[in-house]
Amino acid sequence: MADPRLKQMLSEKKFIVAPGIFDMISARVADRMGFSALYATGYGTVASHLGVPDAGIATFTDMVSRMARFAQASKTPVIADADTGYGGLLNVRHTVMGYEAGGVTAIQLEDQEVPKKCGHTPGRRVIPAEEMALKIEVAAEARKSSDFLIIARTDARTTLGLDEAIRRGRIYRKAGADIVFIESPETEDEMKRIGQEIDAPLLANNVDGGGRTPILSAEKLASFGYSIAIYPALGFLTVAQALEKSYAHLLQHGDTNALPDGVIGDFARMNELMGFPEVWDFDKRWSRPEPQRAAE
After folding, report:
1. Which residues touch 143 (CB under 8 Å, ≥6 apart)?
2. What gap in Å lies between CA 66 and CA 179, rounded to an integer?
3. Residues 260-286: pLDDT tens digits?
4. Helix, strand, coil: what percent of the chain each, to 5?
5. Are 43 and 26 in contact (CB under 8 A)?
6. Is the predicted pLDDT of residue 119 greater than 60, yes or no?
7. Which of 44, 105, 137, 235 has the fewest CB atoms within 10 Å distance of its CB?
8. For helices 234-253 and 42-50, what crossing angle results, to 10°?
9. How do the domains of the chain map onto residue ranges?
10. Which H or E run contains 91?
């Protein structure tokens, strides 16, 4: 079931910062931090689950169970990437139903051609705006609860320009999108213009490590009219960098004794994060003494 808190925060004009989660360790860590929402990134989830690029290779079947697991294991509302809806109108309907049943709170649908590509990589092509508007209408009809929010993303900025991206954002809002996501604006002025010209809750995509869009503060984004900032790459880029450094050290030195402080986490904390104390408590409550053998 969708979490009504996300819709409530939007109605109250509370700015939402959502870190990217991509596996269950990142989900558990982020869920404990006090964020208003979590963003289940398609790029990171595809990379961690399949080890392939976010280029339309993953299917609905690959993704729905993982997105549902993120949502069901988190107390925080989960916003989930659903690419193009994994096909045509019937696929979109099936995707919305599956994500909502899994406990996701907001679904992100984009207007790229199939196969899609990651939003901050080259070569993206978009379908006609009217086709995407139909997808949004189908998605709105397919959901069971109005607390389940629809995020309409357009990738038109990179290939067709900002005017077309803004035009599409307006069309998608009129079609029933709760939140509009203009992907890959390239300057602060472009982001400000988006906020001025689209009357809808807006999502900003902050891609760390070399994305196409400038990363602005929550305060500045809110002043431009944005409602949500996602950081999809922060988690998996941080983890990959730490792993590369740690593994390289092990390869070079043959042990981990001289790794700098703070590189390796505490094993006891990881046990607590994963829920081992509950398992140990269960074992204590239900353990039975070993039966004594009869004297020979």
Report:
1. 96, 97, 100, 150
2. 23
3. 888 888 999 999 999 999 999 999 999
4. 45, 15, 40
5. no
6. no
7. 137
8. 40
9. 4-233, 240-285
10. helix 89-101
CATH number of 4-233: 3.20.20.60
Is residue 115 within 8 A of residue 151, CB to CB? The reply is no
Give the whole-angstrom CA distance, residue 294 versus residue 246.
54
Query: Hey, is 128 helix, strand or coil?
Result: coil
Q: Report the pLDDT averaged over residues 246-255.
A: 95
Q: Which two tokens stand for residue 35?
A: 């964020």
- C-alpha 26/C-alpha 20 separation (Å) is 8
Q: Which tokens is 282 given?
A: 């269960």
Q: Which is nearest to 113 in space by CA: 65, 197, 56, 42?
A: 56
**Which among 228, 241, 239 is positioned nearest to 39, based on CA atoms?**
228
**β-strand partners of 150:** 107
The span from the CA of 89 to the CA of 86, in Å, is 9
pLDDT score recorded for residue 120: 62
* Phi, psi for residue 295 in degrees, rounded to 5: -65, 135
Report whether 126 contacts 113 (CB < 8 A): yes
pTM for the model stands at 0.92
Query: How many residues appear in the chain?
Result: 296
Characterize the bridge pairing of strands 78-81 and 38-40.
parallel
Tokens of 244: 């590369």
Q: What CA–CA distance (Å, rounded) separates 157 from 139?
A: 23
Q: How far apart are CA 280 and CA 243, in angstroms?
A: 29
- DSSP H/E element including 131: helix 129-142
